[in-house]
């Protein structure tokens, strides 16, 4: 008769052999990939709506008020000379759009899998900071994506103005989607800079006073960054990205100054009633250490006298 398998007891601190870590990483990667594939399959059914959403800013900038779906129903030509090249081009484009949308739709799943993999190795306060980072980072990323989506029409209009007179500018749909995706990612990640500074301040790596002293270099750096990040050279697009980032930087600096003041007041007040004070182990304050006598050991004895409370039998 086979004995039932003994259930493994998990280490409360998350420690496990390297093989177990690799096995857990494989399982969590498989779950994340499966969620992305399922999200991509679901997004494929709304492929046309996603295309209309992503191309609407550029179509509006070139004077088109109708989506691709409306143009197809009315059997009109593509507005703004947006084209798809090759026989396999539409299918490849659909796969790319579906997988990209699948990554976005499955972000709660793969973010949880990432968190579940690294959380056992974090302390309690590190877990709290990580959850706060994710909770604040997602809205900031959405805010950056929102700005990029509304800056894109002005950027497209400026870029198309460079087309020579009498020439027709063909806009490959794949390149257009790559441009939209790149701008969304760049704008979204740039909005995470203040959050990174706040996390560095909470961990004690950077003080608020030092962050305040960086303001000139930060304004210059943000301006240079936006000049390379935006696909146009017009000041409207640059200011649309630079002003929110600089504003968020000063908000992060104000939070860091308040946090530093709170930390100084807490240190000046000393430990609370239920908190142990730190020991001062400097050599000048330790004093002389009283030597401890070595314990008596048992020897071969024939009498019944006890040594250190034990006899030969015990």
Structural class based on helices, strands and sheet pairing: mainly alpha
The largest sheet, given as strand count, sense and whether it forms a barrel, is: 2 strands, parallel
User: For the largest beta sheet, what order do the strands appear in spatially?
Assistant: 1-2
Domain tally: 2
Instruction: State the distance separating the first and last CA atoms.
Output: 43 Å
Number of separate strands: 2
> What is the succession of H and E elements?
HHHEHHHEHHHHHH
Subcellular location: Cell membrane; Membrane
InterPro entries: TatC
Biased composition (Basic and acidic residues): 298-314
Pfam family, one: TatC
What does this protein structure show overall?
The protein has 314 residues and is mostly helical. It folds into 2 domains: 18-121, no CATH class; 123-269, no CATH class. It has 12 helices and 2 strands. It has helices at residues 18-44, 47-61, 68-73, 89-105, 107-118, 124-160, 173-190, 193-202, 208-213, 215-229, 235-269, 283-286, and strands at 82-83, 171-172. A two-stranded parallel ribbon has the order 1-2. The radius of gyration is 32 Å and the shape is flat. The model is unreliable at 74-78 (pLDDT under 50).
């Amino acid at each position: 008769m086979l004995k039932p398998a003994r259930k493994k007891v998990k280490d409360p601190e998350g420690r496990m052999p390297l093989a177990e870590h690799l096995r857990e990483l494989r399982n969590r990667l498989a779950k994340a990939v499966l969620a992305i594939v399922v999200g991509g399959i679901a997004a494929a059914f709304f492929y046309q709506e996603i295309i209309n959403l992503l191309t609407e800013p550029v179509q509006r900038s070139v004077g088109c008020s109708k989506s691709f779906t409306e143009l197809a129903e009315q059997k009109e030509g593509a507005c703004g000379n947006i084209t798809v090249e090759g026989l396999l081009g539409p299918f490849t484009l659909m796969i790319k759009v579906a997988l990209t949308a699948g990554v976005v739709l499955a972000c709660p799943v793969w973010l949880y899998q990432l968190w579940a993999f690294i959380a056992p190795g974090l302390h309690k306060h590190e877990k709290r900071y990580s959850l706060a980072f994710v909770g604040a980072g997602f809205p900031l990323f959405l805010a950056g994506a929102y700005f990029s989506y509304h800056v894109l029409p002005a950027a497209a209009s400026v870029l198309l103005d460079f087309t020579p007179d009498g020439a027709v500018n063909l806009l490959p749909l794949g390149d257009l989607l790559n441009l939209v995706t790149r701008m969304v990612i760049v704008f979204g990640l740039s909005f995470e800079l203040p959050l990174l500074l706040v996390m560095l301040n909470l961990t004690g790596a950077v003080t608020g006073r030092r962050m305040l002293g960086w303001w000139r270099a930060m304004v210059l750096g943000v301006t240079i960054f936006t000049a390379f990040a935006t696909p146009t050279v017009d000041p409207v697009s640059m200011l649309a990205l630079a002003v929110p980032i600089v504003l968020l930087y000063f908000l992060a600096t104000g939070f860091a100054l308040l946090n530093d003041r709170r930390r100084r007041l807490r240190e000046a007040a000393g430990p609370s009633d239920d908190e142990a004070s730190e020991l001062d182990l400097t050599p000048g304050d330790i004093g002389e250490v009283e030597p401890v006598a070595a314990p008596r050991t048992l020897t071969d004895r024939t009498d019944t006298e006890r040594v250190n409370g034990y006899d030969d039998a015990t």
